[in-house]
Design brief:
With about 325 residues, the chain is α+β, with helices and mostly antiparallel strands. It has twelve helices and eleven strands. The relative contact order is 0.08.
Length: about 325
């Protein structure tokens, strides 16, 4: 996660929500909002308030200038204008529910709750005469296409710890964490420079470097659920310009980091049609063989997660590379 990129995404996301909220405010106010009101509501400059008003004018050309005895200009958006511009289908509402369930399933409860709030706001924009029918249809569609929640254990993550990590990343402040090391069974205190968060199938990870140069400034993964306490420190840090969370993640299959190696899998004729539908790794190449089998090649580390994944294919896949794969398989 590059610092400038992450900040840019958050800023654009915030601006979008502010504009959406401003449209709701203008719709709910009978006397309308002035530029001074916009400045006060969103803590912005006069020029920014003007830009926000002009942006809404582009989307809502029917926006009205409210007549009043005051010398201050005010604007409002009618419910008709909102309904004309914004409409929702059964499929779109069902997609929201699926996304919320998916986030919840992957232990991302905070993001799920944020999306649930947005969905509620959008539902309030639906015309009353259409709302009941669309919501009923969406519920039926969810029954037919709903996300099957994966049974089994999920690690619990303290939302306050996750919020503190995000705050530290955005403000580029170091953190002190009390961390339980599963391998040693001990609890240690570490001062870290957080670089980002990786969401895995089984665990979610903080990607960070030790502030004291421990392990030669290598980037490490810390299981979020194993972080017992966190403190945001006054000391700041800089994420190297050449660091990319996406490129860092591509070095591995899943989230286990190790030196990348050449990988070659051979799926038999029976499994090949299903294997073609998978993206096993961003760098993969696929070759259809004359006998109907499929060869998949890529370069990455992460043998443990590869073994977990290949286990689901049973005897329908053979590992060609690395050549010592089957000698090491007992270590699964």
């Amino acid at each position: 996660m590059q610092k400038m990129l992450s900040r840019g995404i958050m800023e654009n996301y915030g601006k979008m929500l502010d504009l959406f909220d401003l449209a709701m405010q203008m719709q709910s106010s009978s006397e309308g909002l002035s530029l001074n009101d916009i400045q006060s509501l969103y803590h912005v400059s006069r020029r920014t308030a003007e830009r926000m008003r002009d942006a809404l004018l582009r989307y809502f050309p029917q926006m009205e200038e409210v007549e009043s005895d005051e010398r201050i200009k005010r604007w409002r958006i009618t419910q008709r204008s909102l309904n004309t511009l914004i409409s929702f289908s059964t499929e779109e509402l069902a997609t929201f529910k699926t996304a919320i369930d998916c986030l919840q399933q992957h232990n991302l409860s905070e993001q799920a709750e944020n999306l649930r709030h947005i969905e509620l706001k959008l539902r309030n924009l639906i015309k009353p005469e259409q709302k009941q029918r669309i919501e009923v249809d969406a519920e039926e569609l969810m029954k037919a296409e709903g996300l099957a929640l994966r049974p089994g254990p999920r690690m619990v993550i303290d939302e306050s710890i996750l919020a503190a990590i995000r705050e530290a990343i955005l403000s580029c402040h170091q953190i002190k964490v009390v961390y339980y090391n599963k391998k040693t069974g001990k609890t240690n205190t570490n001062t870290l420079m957080p670089y980002g968060i990786l969401y895995g199938e089984r665990n979610h990870y903080l990607v960070a470097r030790h502030s004291d140069g421990y392990f030669g400034d290598a980037v490490h993964h810390f299981i979020l659920s194993n972080i017992q306490k966190i403190e945001i420190l006054p000391e700041t840090y800089q994420i190297p310009e050449d660091f990319s969370l996406a490129k860092h993640a591509e070095q591995s299959f899943g989230v286990f980091q190790e030196e990348p190696f050449e990988v070659e899998w051979l799926f038999d004729k029976e499994a090949a049609p299903d294997a073609k539908r998978y993206i096993f790794h961003p760098s993969q190449t696929m070759t259809e063989n004359p006998d109907g089998s499929l060869t998949v090649k890529f370069k990455a580390g992460g043998k443990k997660e590869m073994k977990w994944h290949l286990y689901t294919w049973e005897d329908h896949v053979k590992v060609i590379k690395p050549e010592d794969w089957y000698e090491e398989k007992r270590g699964l």
